[in-house]
Design brief:
The chain folds into 3 domains: about 160 residues, Spore Coat Polysaccharide Biosynthesis Protein SpsA, Chain A, CATH 3.90.550.10; about 90 residues, Serine Threonine Protein Phosphatase 5, Tetratricopeptide repeat (Alpha Horseshoe); about 100 residues, Serine Threonine Protein Phosphatase 5, Tetratricopeptide repeat (Alpha Horseshoe). It is built from 14 helices and 10 strands. It is globular, with a radius of gyration of 23 Å. The N and C termini lie far apart (about 65 Å).
Length: about 350
């Protein structure tokens, strides 16, 4: 059986750290907590679980902090989480089974990362990240913000999910402002930006409602032609969102259409086209795009998974669109499909009542 070091970097995480560490303490053989300047009870909480709580002087570089944490690990494999992540009971059991059976030939293991949820607790946005890596491979983190672990070799895709659950008391806008400030300080110094930096800087600008500037950096990112294809598609979708906020529907459509340059249309792109045509009462055009969303599925692999756009959402919109063009049987059919996915959804229940009265 392999041994595992948990390596984390933290700062002012007293609201979530105990929950995080409690979910992995029985899996990891070593817990290493690197504090980058907490002023609350974070270190006190960490010491309940480990005596390996070290300080790291913050230098506006997340990769540097994570690489320092990894350098302290002594076990066969290194596992990493953020303080606002948690392993649910089912995933703890899966991880323990993996620990007992993992062959040493694997250099890394990727886990599912569920980062957003609907009102029923079902994941609405997921993707994969390499979470467990072999210590002797000495893999390094890259990127001063939105860092990633550069991994190669024999990688296993595990059916284990890490759940991202932020505390309501943690100010996400403050963290986002910190990230934006780091990017802008680097720009002011004249530091070169990688394609990934350009993409994530544009995201920070969009989150801070600097839509025109965000669009400029999304286009600069796309012009490099060196981005991950999923990020290129997301950049087009985010540009479309910026144009939507600016009230420019034509440019919004152009940005969505640009995504088709990189791959077949993702369900999100198809649904957004459908929404635009539905809003203009061009219901037949909307139907084409919503049906395409149902046929498109998800990107799979390491791509982003947004199940709503390939399941209940297009069915719900097709219910409306078919009704508007007089195809009432098809409208009812898609309502029933939507109902299977979300029987308690307010819109589905409203439609259900409407159709009951219509049939009567």
């Amino acid at each position: 059986m392999i041994s595992i070091s948990l390596c984390m970097i933290v700062k002012n995480e007293e609201e979530v750290l105990h929950r995080c560490l409690s979910s992995v303490k029985d899996i990891c053989d070593e817990i290493i907590i690197i504090d980058t300047g907490s002023t609350d009870k974070t270190k006190e909480i960490a010491r309940v679980f480990t005596d390996k709580v070290l300080d790291f002087e913050w230098i506006d570089d997340f990769a540097a902090a994570r690489n320092f944490a990894f350098s302290q690990a002594k076990m066969d494999y290194i596992f990493w989480m953020d303080a606002d992540d948690v392993l649910l009971n089912e995933d703890q059991e899966k991880f323990l089974r993996l620990k007992k059976t993992l062959e040493s030939s694997y250099d890394a293991v990727s886990f599912i990362y569920n980062i957003a949820f609907d009102e029923y607790g079902s994941p609405t946005f997921s993707y994969r990240r390499n979470r467990l890596v072999k210590s002797c491979r000495d893999f390094k983190w890259v990127g001063f913000v939105h860092e990633y672990l550069e991994v190669s070799g024999n990688i296993l895709s595990a059916d284990i999910a890490i759940t991202h659950r932020k505390s309501d008391k943690i100010n996400s806008s403050e963290r986002s402002g910190r990230n934006l400030a780091i990017y802008e300080a680097r720009l002011e110094r004249g530091d070169p930006f990688t394609p990934r930096d350009l993409y994530y800087y544009a995201n920070e600008l969009k989150d801070h409602r600097q839509y025109l500037k965000a669009i400029m950096y999304y286009r600069e990112f796309l012009a490099t032609k060196k981005g991950w294809v999923e990020d290129e598609i997301r950049a087009c979708a985010m540009m479309a969102e910026c144009y939507q906020k600016l009230g420019n529907k034509d440019k919004e459509k152009e940005a969505l259409a640009l995504s088709l340059k990189y791959d077949t249309p993702r369900p999100e792109i198809s649904c957004r086209f459908g929404d635009l045509y539905k809003a203009d009462k061009s219901f037949r055009k909307a139907i084409i795009w919503y049906k395409l969303a149902l046929e498109g599925g998800n990107s799979g692999g390491q791509g982003f998974n947004q199940p709503a756009y390939s399941t209940w959402y297009p069915h719900l919109q097709l219910c409306v669109a078919y009704w508007e063009i007089g195809e009432k049987d098809l409208s009812i059919e898609h309502h029933l499909h939507a109902k299977k996915y979300r029987p308690d959804d307010a819109s589905v229940r409203q439609n259900d009542e409407f159709f009951k009265n219509y049939i009567k």
